[in-house]
Amino acid sequence: MILPAPPPAFAQARNISLVRDAEIEALVREYARPVLEAAGLGRSGIEIVLVNDPSFNAFVTGRRIFINTGTLLMSQTPNEVIGVLAHEAGHIAGGHQQRLREQLARAQTLAVVATVLGVGAAVAGSASGARGLGQSAAGIFTGGMEAARRSVLSYQRTEEATADRSAITYLERTGQSAKGMLATFERLADSMTLAGVRVDPYQLSHPVPRERIANLETLARASRHFDRTDPPALQQRHDMVRAKIAAFTQGHAAAGRLFRDNPGGVPAIYADAIGTFLSGNARAAVSKIDTLVRAAPKNPYFHEMRGEILMKAGRPAEAATSFATAMQLDPHRSGIIQIGYGQALMATGKQEDLRKAVNELQAGLSRDREYAAGYRYLAQAYGQLGDVPQAELATADGHFYSGNYRDAKIFAARAQQKMPNGSPGWLRAQDIINYRPVGR
User: Is 423 helix (H, G, I), strand (E, B) or coil?
Assistant: First the structure.
């Protein structure tokens, strides 16, 4: 189930909304794994982060690749998304972020020099009464800063072109087609044409789409893998992810339109079941998701969705059974699904399930430590058990992984006062209290 996620400090600072979903994350990681290996990044701890944004975009910060849900929704094939990920891997492997920082530093120096020269000219003009000299000072100000800006943009365009070529290399190494990359650039070019957009290519940080196509098409078509298509099973998984994103972000009707050419297909039924669930008709949604479960009983995400629907229907014991099945079937051992199982156990209201819920929530969070919402459920479970110190520590962790460090420290201090000195909980609280964000 797509869930809004409190963003870490980086995302908060840029007003980025993240989402968490076990099914989508598993698929995108599978897309990324071969190209990261080909780029020499297989053991670099690269994370894929989903951004709740309808536009077609992806970007890199540090060791994280951020990809918009709109990119997945608009991509007709897995190969198109894989091409996007290969391009972003090219940025990481090429060290482009560090070099961009260096370029920005040089540009800033150039702008400072221009400012100093402009101030000097302005002072000289004022002292001499030479009006023309004062006007030329303004030109030095603006001209120097514009030159610095264009220098950075030119550098960025060069790095984008380099990342495109690297992506072609990675796709070739992994036996995949670059056709998806070309399709992406064609879509971007068409959207600019339909919008009547006229741009100065020298004012862009990326090469214009038609230029990118011209630069890559010959190289892409020369590959023996160019006409290779995605396996049907992978295409279906891709379409199911698109169905889920459409239903959650654009509504029932939009999800139906996405698959109107095949209304009886699995993705269309999936979209309909989710849309029915979101519209509040849990009973009908259970019936629809059960159709999919019967057709594919080993699909963990159908069982997970069934659990979510049953929770909404007020049937937590049955929901717990569905989540438990999803956990058993999930090859990726998602912490999100296990946290859902713990949440369902907690909702049964049975004391014996409550202690088990704590164990499951803790285990799920150990696999997905940054899943901030899970700490809220854990705090509730501890609170129901009467364990106030652990409830406050879980609350502190939830604030911490949401980037809300002030409240994290407050709750950590409260928890620590009630814990034995030197105990694991006391030490974790101390870590939160002592934490200082980078750059502050």
Answer: coil
Return the structure tokens found at 136: 């030329």
CA pair distance 306, 312, nearest whole angstrom: 10
Pairing of strands 18-20, 64-68: unpaired
Amino acid at position 210, single letter: R
What are the pLDDT digits (tens) for 13-68?
456 788 999 999 999 999 999 999 999 998 888 999 999 999 998 888 888 899 99
Please report the pLDDT score of residue 320 as a whole number.
98
Whole-number pLDDT of residue 158: 64
Confidence of residue 160 (pLDDT cuts 50, 70, 90): confident
Token representation of residue 435: 């934490």
Instruction: Give the sign of the dihedral formed by CA 86, CA 92, CA 95, CA 97.
Output: positive
| DSSP β-ladder status, 64-68 and 47-51 | parallel
- Measured CA to CA, the distance from residue 281 to residue 286 in angstroms comes to 9
For residue 310, the model assigns a pLDDT of: 97
CA distance 256 to 269: 9
- Please state whether 175 falls in left (phi above 0), alpha (psi between -120 and 50) or beta: left
CATH number corresponding to 233-377: 1.25.40.10
| Residue ranges, CATH 1.25.40.10, the chain | 233-377
Threshold 0.85, pTM exceeds: no
The residues, ordered by sequence, that sit 6+ positions from 37 with a Cβ below 8 Å of its Cβ are 174
